[in-house]
Structures are given as C-alpha cells and as structure tokens.
Amino acid sequence: MSWYSFRPYVSVAERHRKAEAAAKKLVKKSGRSLAPVNLASRKIATTFWGKAWCDNLEAYSDFANRLPRGRAYVRNGSVIDLQILRGKVEALVQGSDLYKIAIGFSPLAAKRWKDFKTRSAGKVTNLLDLLQGRLSKDILADITARDAGLFPSPKEIDLDCSCPDWADMCKHVAAVLYGVGARLDEKPELFFTLRGVDMQELVTAASTTATTPIASTPAADTALAGADLAEIFGVELEAGDVAAPTVEAKPPPARPAKPIRPRRALARRKPSKAKAGDALQKPRRARTRKAVLVAEAKVPARKAKKK
Ligand SMILES: [Zn+2]
After folding, report:
1. Could you tell me the sign of the dihedral formed by the alpha carbons of 10, 15, 21, 25, in that order?
2. Ligand 1 centroid from CA 288, angstroms
3. Domain that holds residue 134
4. Quick check: is 305 in a domain?
C-alpha cells in the first residue's frame, strides 16, 4: 500500500504560484502590477467604510445565503488581484483554476446623491473625518440607510465570473465582494470612485452653507485634507498594519519655528489685497496656516495649570 495510488497532490502553495504567474501575465498587458487582497487578521474589514460595505451586502437576503462561501477564499489570499474602478470591480481569483470576475455597479442615482448632500450640508467638515467615518451617528446612519443611503442594493449590482459552475453568485464573486470591503479599509476613497460621485462635494457643500457662498477657504481645506490623507493612509499601508485608521489621526510632526507670530500676522491680515483665488493658487500657504491653527489649538492645554 502506498500513497502513489492517490491522485497527484498539488500543494496550495504551488497552485498559488501558478495562478500568480498566470495573473501577472494577464495584468502585464495593462501595464500595472497585481493588487491582491491580503487580510492582516481574520477580520475582513475593521473600519467604518469596510465594515459598512460588508454589512450592507449581508443585509440583503439575496446575498446573505451565498456570501459566506466567499469568506474562506478571501481569507486565504485567493483574491490575487482586485481593482476598484468607476462603476465596476475587476478581479482575479484563484480557485481550481484562475478566474476572472467582473462586477458592475450602477452609478449612485443623481437625485439620491443630491438629496444626501442637502441633508449632510454643514455636517461633514473635512475629508479625513469623512473617510475615517468620524461623523455624527445621524450622518453615519444616513450613509448606510438601506434605500436613501450611499451603498448599492443587489439590483444595482451585476455579477459575472468566468468559472464553469457560475450561478447567481459563486464563491469567487462572493470572495471579491468581501475583498472590496477589505480594500475600503485601506482606501476608503475608492467607495466614491466606485459609486461615481465626487466625495469633495460633500465637504464643499458643508462649508459653503456654513459660510459665504464665495468658496475660498473650502478649496484650501480640502486640498490640505487630501495631502494629510495620503500621508496618513500611506504610512499605515507601508507598515502593513492591522491598525484601524479610525484611531485618531496624528497631525504632521513638522512645527512652525515661530508658532505665535505668523498666526497673528495671518489672522489679522486684511483681506483687501488677498483675493478669493489666492487660497486656490497657494495651497502651501494655506497648509502653513492650518498647521499654525493646530498649534494654536494646543496652546490652552499647555497653559492649563493644576490648582
Ligand atoms: Zn466563479
């Protein structure tokens, strides 16, 4: 008796290697590299956008029964490439073979987006809070509301897989749907790309209703938020950390050499010569000013004394 009578065994590692080689060939044509879904723990998603994505899918009975079969696949690294684009997700999943998955998403209906912007006006103060889900409970509930929120329903999702046992939802598609949740943990801004809307409009809408209709500072603020965002999420990505970005964001370490004087100078500068366009054309100056404001916020804390 020997093990030779069994069919040839191909290790998981070997299958992964083969699939990866095949996948690399496939994406090479498009001039990019593979973007695999690698979970840092058993949890598929840990941040607001990632978790809300998964919760939304599981909330629909159409999906709830079929999704679980994708969990093991996404956890063991079978989703070897996943791209979130405007209105679609393209992915490669390694099963007994390498399969191509394409999932189409209808763009968020214009009226739904417009209504949401109206309801959220003045409540989303910057991009970083939006992307880290640091918003009021009301807004978070609004975002995830089943019919009026921003997440897609099954009827807005069009599933397709190249595998032979393709039914309504095979395990490859299910794995990719979960993979999107994992990807949103790292890059929550892709949610808005996928839904075909501009997330900046939420912040701009908030600021313009709160102040004057001439939007000068909001543009500088959003530009700044974008820069911080890249720093914060970039750092976390390189660290390969599980750490949820919901933990408070640290401001850039760089401090202005003279924290007090420039602040006063800027604060008291008369707007006579500074036109609205200035803020747009000089993001660096706007950034310095914001850094100073951060420093300013810290001053009272330092002065506080024990009695
Ligand atoms: Zn399939």
Report:
1. positive
2. 51
3. 12-210
4. no
Q: How does pLDDT run across 59-114, given as a tens digit for each residue? A: 998 888 899 989 999 999 999 999 999 999 999 999 888 999 999 999 999 999 99
Question: Are residues 175 and 78 in contact, defined by beta-carbon separation less than 8 angstroms?
Answer: yes
- If you measure from the C-alpha of residue 96 to the centroid of ligand 1, how many angstroms do you get, rounded to a whole number? 10
Task: Report how far ligand 1's centroid is from the alpha carbon of 186 (Å).
Answer: 25
286 belongs to a structural domain: no
Give the up-direction half-sphere exposure of residue 38: CA atoms within 13 A in the CB hemisphere: 8
**Ligand 1 geometric centre to CA of 8 (Å):** 24
**HEC assignment per residue over 55-96:** HHHHCCHHHHCCCHHHHHHHHCCCEEEEEEECCEEEEEEECC
> How far apart are the CA of 170 and the centre of ligand 1, in A?
5
**Whether the model pTM is above 0.70:** no
Q: Token pair of 299, please? A: 């001053």
If one counts the domains in the chain, the total is 1
CA of 247 to the centre of ligand 1 (A): 36
Residue 89 Cα to ligand 1 middle (Å)? 14
Dihedral sign (CA 256, 248, 136, 177): positive
Q: Is residue 271 part of a domain?
A: no
**Using CA atoms, how far apart are residues 67 and 306, in angstroms rounded to an integer?**
56
DSSP 118-186: HHHTTT---HHHHHHT-S-HHHHHHHH-TTTSSSPPGGGEEEEE-STT--SS-HHHHHHHHHHHHHHHH
